[in-house]
Amino acid sequence: MNSLNFFNNLGYAWPETIITLFLAILVIYNLVYPQARRALGIISLLGIALALGFTIQQMWTQFPTDPSWLSGFTRMLIPDKIGIFFKVIILIATAYVVLFTEFSEELRGTFDRAGEYYALIFGMLLGMMFMISANNFILLYVSLELVSYSSYVLAGFMKTSERSSEASMKYIIYGGVASGIMLFGISLMFGMTGTFYYFDISRLLMMININSVLFLISGIMIFTGIGYKISSVPFHFWTPDVYEGAPTTITAYLSVASKAAGFAALIHLVRNCFVGAVATDGYWVMLSHFYWKELLVYLAILTMTVGNLTALWQDNLKRMLAYSSIAHAGYLLAAMSVLSNQGLIAMVVYFSVYLLMNLGAFFIVILIQNKTGSENIDDYNGLGTRMPFLGACLGIFLVSLTGLPPTAGFIGKLYLFLALVDAKMIILAIIALLNSVISLYYYIRVLRHMYLTKGNNESPITPSFGSVLIALSLAVPVLLFGIYFTPLIEWAKTVVLR
Amino acid sequence: MTDMSTLSTFLTHIGLGHFLFISGMLFSLGIYGVVTRKNAVMVLMGIELILNSANINFVAFARYGNYGFHGQLAALFVIILAAAESAIALAIVLNIYKTFNNVNVDEIDKLRE
Amino acid sequence: MDLYLILFYFFAIITLVSAFFVVTTRNVIYAAFNLMLTLFGVAGFYVLLGADFIAIVQLIVYVGGILILLIFGVMLTNKITDTDIKSGFLNRVPGLLIVGTFAGILIGTLLKSTWRIAAPLPPPVAGLVGIGNLLMTEYTLIFEILGAVLLIALIGAASIARKQSN
Amino acid sequence: MNQIPFIPIALIILVLPLIGFFFTLLFGKKIKQMYLFETGIITTALGLSIYMAFMKLMYYANEKIVSELTWIDLGSTKAFGKISVDLGMMIDNVTVLMLFVVCLISTLVHLFSIEYMKGDKRYNRYFSYLGIFTFSMLGIVFTHNMLMMYIFWELVGLSSYLLIGFWFEKKSASDASKKAFVVNRVGDFGMLAGILILFANYHTFTFDKVFAQISQGVLPFNSEFWLTAMGILLFCGAIGKSAQFPLHVWLPDAMEGPTPVSALIHAATMVAAGVYLTVRIFPLLTGDALLFIATIGAISSFIPATIALTQNDIKKVLAYSTISQLGYMVMALGVGAYAYGFFHLVTHAFFKAGLFLGSGSVIHAMHHEQDIRQMGGLKKKLPITYTTFLIFSLAISGIPLTSGFLSKDGILASAYAFGNLTGYKIFAISGFLVALMTAFYMFRLLILTFHGEPRNEEKYHHAHESPALMTMPLVLLAILSIFAFYTINPLSAQTGWVLKDWLKTPASVVPEHARYSFMVQKHDEKPEAAVKHEEAVAEKPAAESEHTIIHSEEYTEALHHAHYPAMFLSLAVAGLGILFAFIMYFWRKINADKLADSVKPLYKFSLNKWYFDEFYDFAFVNGTLLLSRFLAWFDSTIVDGIVNGSAVVTRQLSKLSGLFDTYVVDGLVNLSATLSGLLGIFTRKFQTGKVQTYIIMVVFSLVALLFILMNYGI
Amino acid sequence: MNHAPLLSLITFLPVIGMIIVLLLPKGMEKAMKITTLTVTFLQIVIAGVIWSGFNYSLGGINDPNSFQFIEKFRWIELTGVAWLNTIKIDYFIGIDGISAPMLMLTALISFIAALSSWNINKAVKGYHAMYLLLVTGMMGVFVSLDFFLFYIFWEVMLLPMYFLIGIWGGPRKEYAAIKFFIYTLFGSVFMLLVMIGLYLSCQETLAAGQKVFTFNILSMMDPKNYTATGILSPLNPHNLRFIAYIGLFAGFAIKIPMFPFHTWLPDAHVEAPTPISVILAGVLLKMGTYGILRFNYPIFPEITRQVIWWIAAFGMINIIYGALCAMAQKDFKKLIAYSSVSHMGFVLLGMASLNTIGITGAIFQMFNHGTITAMLFLIVGVIYDRAHTRGIYEFGGLATQMPIYTGFVTIAFFGAIGLPGISGFISESFVFLGGFGFEPIRLLTILSTIGILLGAGYMLWTLQRVYLGPLNEKWNQLQDLDGREYAMLIPLTIIVLILGIYPSFMLGLMNTSVNALVDFMAKSPQLFSSIGM
Asked: Which residue of D has its CA nearest to B39?
């Protein structure tokens, strides 16, 4: 391999390269100017913007359709558009989280470590980028660990806070075991196939018969790692605790970005390892070595139901949003379980929407937390009248999370159900629908506390201009896509078409 | 007699199965350790056992399946990752000790339903 | 071949017994030392499997690095005056039940399965060159990422462990 | 054809009271004299109606003037054809007679009320109510179809509601008005069912069109049973409105309204509407239906008569007497004496209105004292009232030279003849018994009120004859209770113009074998009337030619034979009744109280009105209320509960954990909520906060998932 | 489209109003109220223009050419690929004789309720914004001819309603609001599923000959448009049309509300502020029955045939059950709420008759219930405003104190009883006539007529307890109606009376469509059921 080839191959990983570069820049800059916190944010945004640019540029790059033709390290990457989509999602989420950090009061105590904060975010970002495009189990594992390590630290970033420290400890123990199980699964997979590459495994699966029980065990163990990232029941246990304890910005980040990376990894794993071909009607012809459909259907039902039911009982808004994010993972799994391009479209649409509404909800939670110092739902009493604009925004986000028109959340649900009904998975569709009814309880409960209950304090709260701008930038698309969703779907279509 | 002979054959002819047995045991012991130990550091030890068991697998599969050096490389990476993880984990445990004054995992359950 | 057999059982006993003590002993320091033995045993297996390089890395990184780290951890999280550093157990029964079931299934399946085993088992190859080649070509990316991982681990661990500046 | 614009005049007559109502209602508060406007309007209507009745009866006695317009056009569909709802007016002899009665009595009551109601705080409102009542009543009179009949039927119900409850501050009055409306609704319920059958089968409401179809053999649901049922159901309306057994209970209570109102609607017009309805639907009634009607009529005439014997409230006596007389009319129709039934309606309207107005005069004089035990000797104080009251009493008792004799005798004769023809003699027997009782209680009333010594000196002292505006209607009605207005022969109405020329029994349209046998016309005989008016008939469509024929020869014969026995018998019983009354109350040869004591159970039974109210209260009112309370409880507890998840479980749970309670209040309220709440509690349990537990569960899930997936085959 | 976009205007005018209200600074409460009033008044004007331009001879139902004031343009257009359906969603609105009366009703009731909102002084801005949004939702539901659009409008109403009850309601407002929300949402999720199922089963042919899946409900009424394999396609022998029918029906039934889904209604009514009760009873409940007529009937005619007895049976249960429950109430508003349950039963019964007269009666009853019950709620509002209690037994003899008010009460009450001369009579008797004319539900119709008896019972009893009898001295300072209340009650009274005397005003509007529907329902079940076999 000559160096020219290396740089040629780097073309597949420009965004990642840029992120690595900016990671280094951040670290160095912080060493040189330890006090310049604002600048770090700006540098981060710059880096993200650049990476985003390159990522979007990749949309128009022609990649070889069969990754096994690639040479060098690029063999480990799947340069497909679905991956690009998830990268875009992650980059946007990162940008927002960087912005949110500016508004977070609770992170104020850690501003002396802002350099580390941004560096860790970039590390996580880098990990997720590779996790998304991983075409190799080792890469998957390594990048997953990179994401995990960064997020362990970020979750415990407010180290003087008990909650944050505890979250971080639980996270690392849980994550360590989950990734350990995954690693063991990978090792079994390696033992059966002799390779780490998805496409090699796929090719092998088409030819040879593999002991199924072992294959099942291996598959489930590998899924454990991914399931833990996307917080699918029964691998979700860390989610509420960590979400509650972690700084809210990081919670938002985990709930969107790391979930996106997990789902992208899942999609790539399934699509590149276990799909024989795509039928003309969009359904995937599965290589019958692993019961993906059954597994995903069961887990989808479990995930959304457990998420929603438990969310009913939460008084802490962050914790409630944690369960809500579990429930949404359930919907996404349901879309995944269709195992078709339609399902993929539904996932893409849903995730685009989920990005907006979930980030939005967390942003408002952050802003409210700044004022009241609490995420407890009782402290939301009467906030709707005290801060009408932000209250309305939170209302929009929550309604969207419920999936009611005319918000984008409805479009996400619509496409999900379109895929499910098209696949004649009516029972799952009904369960999902009932779940969305249940979810109304706890989403509306927030609004109830904000608007229907009288608070002790009546003094109005005026949000800063910046926060209004950010909230608007999330709320307006949520409404807009709810009414006119052509661009959303067009994008999803481009993304899913290989 | 066949049972005895298969068993003795098994015992005397070291093959992949032996290593897999060791790794399976290590894995299970690791998880058992994680699950049962109070002390956070000992929980981490359990995790190390899990990682080691996987590593044995990698190397053993590569050797018996003649898969080249991929297995060894994987083991190498895992060792490196384990080192990094331990560093972070210990930092976190130290922090826990600072805030909670103990490192008993079961007592750190403020975040719960 | 006999030596191989003896060595295997030697390492196997060391590994499993010490691993057993790691998870059962009350004393944290004992556990740490038993872990060392386990890791040592595992390194022995690597040698038996012809992976010398990995065995050495195991010894250097694990025994020399991680274990020391863990012992530091033990020391730093216990009051120095405590002579016997003990730690209790929990979840023993459910842990035993579930992990036992799981182990049974796992090991049973592992042993029962037919694996792809190269028909004439080729002799072990000294690995350093091969590993190095692969590392620099196919696995460059992972190599690079590992760099980032280490950087992140460094930053992260430092960020958490260092003293609050103000 | 008609030189006289009957329809426009009828429309004007119909609308006038409505105008009166609106204006009086709207401006009554501001302009004190609105009652005069209203009275003027009614008087105008009376004038017009007299003109119309005269012209119709004199010159067009055998014509039927019909005018209709499409009210609602529902277009047509392939499956059901064209559907439209017509409104229309029909003017025949019955119409104009009824019109005259209604307008006259309404006018008289207006006049009477001017004095009687003087000083009431809602004086003008009262008159406006009279206006809407008159309007509704006229609507019934003019209608040519069942729907309009029902519409005005309900409006009459409304106006009676308003009038009975006019003094709504009195609880008894508002109770009575509600009772009247609701009990009437019970009857209407049957009537509505009848209408439904009618419309479902004939797709029209118009009487003539329905009759035409029935006479062509179109039966409801192709069954005579349903024809009978339809007739009976339609008649249910009459049971309600005419206060027939078993729905008669509202009428005595309705006496809570002002007395002129009782005279107007509860004696002469509204209650007669039921009879009028029966008259209108007479052609479609089968023999069985008629028998049913006759039975209802007989019972309704008998029971109230027994009750009236013992009542002490002057108006109550009259009320029961009214029911009894209405029962007579209904019975008359039931036994096929169409003409007599209607004739009795007319005569009864006059003398009963008179009686009520007379009692109003008494009550007015006695300062709203209604108990006859407090009266006595009023003859001297109220001479005009007394005289007219006496005439009315004679009339209702059926003493010759009065109108009452003519009609009542006719009915009794018909019943007698009916008994001879069919064997159902019970109607005649009951009729004569009632005649006996009627004479008795009327004279008991008369004697106790006007004769003897005053029993309440103070009230007696203040009593004085009513002003002219009140006595004038009495006199007028008394005059109208004289035979001369109906016939020249005081002993037989048959020869009178009313029966001979004006009231013709319409031919039944039901299949012949479903009629009373005596109503079947032998085919070889040409009906007398038909021959007589061949010219007029010839111009009409064939279906209508049968419309004015009388009974068969056989019946005419029987009636003829029954006439004299019945007459003598009725005279005898009336005389006997009067005699008894005089013996007991005038000469006091028999102590009424002692007699009552000797038959105490019977007396009590009668005094307490056969316990109908108690029974209904117990069985229906309370039953319904209980049911409704039960259902409300059911609704709030069970239905809600089932939907909300078992209420008990909810409550127990809320006790168990105060947490749950807050959530129940918080809005986890229905089944899904409770269930999901419970499940939520369950799923929460896993989130222990201990990371090692989580890991155990993860490992467990791994095993579980493995087994689940292994189920799909290895 | 060569006419002014009147329907869009009438639908989205309130949104404009809402924006104005939101932009108005705090403290200009009066201006907000005036904005709402103006907007709703303009809606009445537009409704009048629509009425004047309405062609009575066009039937609508399943024929796109005979709908009126159609506005149709592509809203969402997504070209598909082999495995991805081309999605074309139209902004397709139009009215026929079934929606036109509802449109008029909505315009009218919105205005009346806006008037009634005048004395709401808490968080005026939010109230009026929500109110106007609600009005848009209601209008939209009645004009949509595209299922997707319909669904969006349907759901858009939920949130404003939740807040309107929840913020401005009575003591248990939160409970009532969430109950309303959950019930309705529960119903509508099934509707969503059926919508998707229909979408994936039904194709329309574009001008270019291309076949695309469609949300167009008119296309769904033609069995020829269904694909062979769609789960809701009659061509598919294993279709789920029956289950889908039930699901869709349940969604609408909750809104009606049909027994046993009715329990949200009393709570919602009791807790809601007067104008919202008026809207709720006046318009919202109609959406359920309207939906059944617009969707269940023509899209699933063969199943409608199968279940028609059940619809009638539930209608009967509603009538009787509602009436009996009403009788037991001690809360005035709850009584009227239950009377609504009873009256909506008439609509169900009438619809089940499948003949002109019955369906006419049903639609007319929808309109009449809207006006009469609105009056009733306003009436309760009047005394509640004054006395701050609604306990029936706490009043008595108000007629002495407030005679004019009692006059209106009498009209409204007798209207509710179905007294001739008031519009309710026509519709109720048409329902009975229609129901009785249809053999399978004849007995049910007869049983239902008990309802008029019970209706008279509880209404008159209430009239007596509250208004008649001796005056309860506690209330001897109550004032009679003021100008605003006149302005609310008089128009309704006039409409109720005019329609009682000359119903053809309204019946003419709907007649052609009703006949078209009846004809459609007569012939299409065979088409739908025979095609698959």
From this structure: D692
